[in-house]
Amino acid sequence: MKKWAGMIGLTLVALLAWAYLARWGEPSVDQPIAFPHKTHVQQLKLNCTNCHQRAEKDAAAGRPPTALCFACHAAVEAKNDEMKKVRAFGESGKEIPWRRVWRLPAHVFFSHRTHVTVAKVRCQTCHGPMETLDRPPARPLRKLAMDDCIGCHEKWEWPKEITEGGTEPVRVAAGRRVSTDCYACHR
Ligand code: HEC
Ligand code: HEC
Ligand code: HEC
Ligand code: HEC
Ligand code: HEC
Question: How far, in Å, CA of 48 to CA of 63, rounded?
Fold first, then answer.
């Protein structure tokens, strides 16, 4: 009997450990190509906005078009299967069907432009250390709950180089309190 109880106990511990590691309940995302941010940001010294080109002017940051990958990868030797996939998409002219990882509920409004261009918040403040990843993240590295958004808005202090050095419209935007009104985020 004792032996069985021990076995069942061990099985339970193993199951719990597995559930914890697999982070039960959080959906995980698979991407069509094992794109490494690390290689492109740390080794090739690309900026985030070289690829996520809409982040400075639009609400959405956007994903790079296949043509941008292929501009380099047409010439880079396809050493492995993942690089061969990039080349195949490039040659066929098809867009790579990337899947979304960060997503707010539809009732929340968020604009990259406001945060990236006006307030100059770093991408990593909200997304975590993307530049260290050697494969696509299966889940958000950092979650953004309502308290995180409001927490920053409440205690935000405009840096001097923005309030003093920015262009006229930016100086006007700066200096005012950041809204914590429900309707600012829920439209
Ligand atoms: C500025 C040029 C450039 C751009 C733009 C670029 N790549 Fe690369 N990429 C490279 C180079 C160079 C390597 C090889 C690095 C090495 O061998 O260490 C590479 C490596 C890779 C690898 C293989 C990494 C590994 O370690 O196996 C993948 C996958 C990849 N790139 C996908 C993409 C995708 C997808 C895009 C578009 C979103 C893209 N690349 C955009 C230059 C680029
Ligand atoms: C060479 C192009 C390239 C560069 C440079 C690049 N990214 Fe990406 N990024 C991608 C691609 C392709 C994906 C989709 C695959 C993935 O998730 O890895 C992506 C996905 C993301 C996502 C997830 C988006 C979602 O679907 O929710 C975030 C966040 C992100 N990148 C942030 C950054 C940040 C921050 C930097 C700079 C440190 C950066 N990226 C630099 C190409 C790039
Ligand atoms: C203040 C926080 C914040 C900052 C700063 C920020 N993001 Fe985001 N990002 C988000 C949120 C929130 C979402 C999900 C938006 C949604 O679902 O509407 C998101 C989504 C994304 C996505 C996927 C959806 C899309 O918009 O295309 C990419 C890619 C991305 N961010 C890249 C970046 C990059 C690159 C930077 C820096 C140039 C950056 N983000 C700066 C909060 C932020
Ligand atoms: C690290 C700080 C920070 C975080 C985190 C942050 N914000 Fe902001 N947000 C700002 C700043 C600073 C501004 C003011 C920019 C301006 O006035 O143009 C702003 C402005 C806004 C505005 C426009 C409000 C207005 O007064 O016009 C909205 C909407 C918004 N943020 C939504 C969000 C949402 C949703 C999240 C969470 C997903 C979020 N923010 C997370 C710093 C942040
Ligand atoms: C700075 C942006 C911001 C402000 C201001 C804000 N919210 Fe939210 N709210 C969010 C975000 C982001 C979420 C989604 C959180 C998530 O998905 O985890 C959310 C979610 C919610 C939800 C859905 C419940 C949930 O947990 O998903 C309700 C209800 C809500 N907010 C009510 C309010 C009310 C009432 C106010 C004013 C007192 C308010 N919010 C102000 C950003 C904001």
Answer: 11
